[in-house]
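Shipment paperwork, digital attachment
Item: protein structure file
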Amino acid sequence: RPTFKYFTWHTCVLGIAGCVVMVFLISPIYASASVAFMVVLLVALHYLSPSSSWGYISQALIFHQVRKYLLLLDSRKEHVKFWRPQVLLMVRNPRTSLQLIRFINDLKKSGLYVLGHVELADLDSLPADPLPDQSDSWLQLVDRLNIKAFVNLTLASSVRNGTQQLLFISGLGGMRPNTIALGFYDNADPQDYMSQPTAFSRDEAIWHEFPPVWTSGGPKQLSPWEYVAIICDAMKMSRNVLLARSFDQLQPPQALGWRAQPLIDVWPVNLWRPDSARYVDTSSLFLLQMACVLAMTRSWRRARLRLFLCVESCTSPQGQEDKLRQLLKDLRIQAKVQIVPWDEVVALHWHSHRGDSADGGLNAYSNITSISDEYLTAVNQLILQQSTSPTVRFLYLPRPPADTNLYPRYLQQLEILTHGLGPTLLVHGVSAVTSTQL
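Attachment content:
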């Protein structure tokens, strides 16, 4: 090593600055050409050089910087002004979830994105941990899809236990998921997107690493009760919840062409509770924020945000519309407000509500037992009538019932509500993400 004892970073910077100044003073043209050539050479080496086996100094530098700034990222200093979506997407099989993985990558914008997967196995019965080999395939998938996501895999005896583990441990320091995204629970046969020629070529290694898709005749790894229990667990941990249905039908904005304008339809009212049609509760504001974040991303920048205001004739539609527009102005959300009369739909709700009350079957905690299939079907048709084919819909996700015996009924009602709606995101927020006081 050099034996010069009077070296400091100050003298180093001074020497660099002096050399740069002298080079440009001697010959500005040759100096500029040399700098340009060096930049081109560095870029070419970065993208064209083969992988080496002696390691990369850049990884050591990145590790040092990331560790330093993660320690500075203090979760106690979080503020609503700096809130951003940090999503944990639970994926059973990437073969059937490529569209959803890409969509959540857009939805998270500049936030944290973690792909989570639960492998059902017992480590005691295995000779070695199988997750490292699987991680390589998942990381190749992330590179192939060109998304900015981390991968987090775990072993567990059940999907629910594995999801709890990931909710507890995903992230590091102040970067932890505040939202969990799940696929919708139904019996529809999923589509294998990796088998399509436009997705991956058949000779790629990741084609063979992931298991075949589930068919309707095979057993499910997850029961309806366990699925709803996962939703309840996330809410207990103060995580926002996203349920994605029919995203295999999603047409990305790039595929629509430059003439077609993507549409984002937002229904921020709890459609299960027409008696409390409010647009300012925590979940509604979170839903509005997520739709706004999606519309601000580069891929969805041309999208138009449409907000549907459900009103009854006995109320003041103009007054409700003015309040909603003022709220959007305060939140700086640009959206087109459309008035939706729903007197006939609400009448069906009150008719079934009176019938259940007369029978003494009204649940004290939730109105799930008082909601009829006829009412939910009418709401479903109302949504279809107002917007036939938007690119994606955002709907309010009601909180699951406290009675675990009602979990299958809860899923059945979600199925009726979202049947045939195309790509639909059911959203439930548990934390404040907007403020009009700043």
